[in-house]
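ok trying again, last paste got cut off:
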Amino acid sequence: MLTKQEVLRSIREIAAPRKVTMDTDLAELVEDLDDGLEGLIESLEHEFNIELPEESILEAETVGDLCYLVMQVSAPPYPPGPSPASHPSPPVNP
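nice, full thing came through this time. structure:
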């Protein structure tokens, strides 16, 4: 699973030489990038082999929000639990 430091490091590389923290305003950051928000998102999706949902991207206000979104999308799904059929309920006495 990715850590926020790994994602932040990637964003810093894309945004260099600008100083970027978790509190950096995302809208202000992408104004300074040649490829804007689309370029940033494409770079992150390519690097971490993920697809970020557009509606969630638009809700991100800070670099920290974007980091957590990338972490959430890259997290492996929970393993499936036992199906109810594999643990039948005991019979109920009438």
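cool. Residues 40 and 47 are 11 Å apart (CA to CA). The domain at 4-74 is CATH 1.10.1200.10 (Non-ribosomal Peptide Synthetase Peptidyl Carrier Protein; Chain A).
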